[in-house]
Amino acid sequence: MEKVLITGGTGFVGRYVVNLALKKGYEVHLLVRNPKKAENIFGDKINCYVMNDLTKIEKLRDTIKIIKPDYVIHLIGIIQEIKSKGITFEKVHFEYAKVLYEVLKELPPKKIIHMSALGVDEKAPSKYHITKLKGEKELLKSGLPYVILRPSFILGPQQLLFIKLKEILHRIPFIIFPDIKGYYFQPVDVRDVAECFIKAIEYNGTGVFELCGDEKVSLRNIVKDFLKILNKLVFFIPVPKGFLKLFLSEQYKMMWKDNVCGYSKDALPMTEILQRSPIPYIESIKWSAINK
To answer: Which tens digits make up the pLDDT trace of 184-200?
Structure first.
């Protein structure tokens, strides 16, 4: 039985990747901060190793030596910094990748599958995209066999935006939401994303893939469609750009160009690795709304 080591396995995307890896018959090993959380999600189906900080190189090296993984799936990422706890884009996206790939050069797996993000670019104004790109470069620099996946906005019941919307709806029957115009995503279903990670193990060769769904949708319409399925109202209020820059500076910078496929000349389409069409947007948004 081949071994797969997964970082970020208890996160939104991670739990789908782990469950699919188990279904496919892989022996799954997780690096986790909270083993109890992993146990609550997966029971005794996986092997957990406590790793609070991937930059602790000696502990990481010892753990990798114990596991001896055939494949490594690196999913860890954040969309917001918590500087008081030392959680920054630079540390999580770049430093974690740098140390992990340095260790794996010493104990090389057959392949590394790396979670990046759509929109990475040398010219990107956001620390989020710049550090995601730096993480990619560390993998390329390692010389190890790789597949890099760059998803757009990921749809699923555990999507943080959807969780927050449902929390608000428990208190009030409607939502007031900023009317952010002129910015589009190409949402992709988390089940498709997870399948791409597992199929990347068997993919013949290396490559960078953009993961996008079948429709280009504004943030306004994603929220509107989600709440329509729940039979709830939403009122959109125009928000001056100055307000967004002041209070949501990093998030505003992330929206420097549409989050859709086709910008990167070096990237391949998702269908090449998925080997089918993506789950339709309307089906995915319905599934995301009615499930927990």
So the answer is: 999 999 999 999 999 99
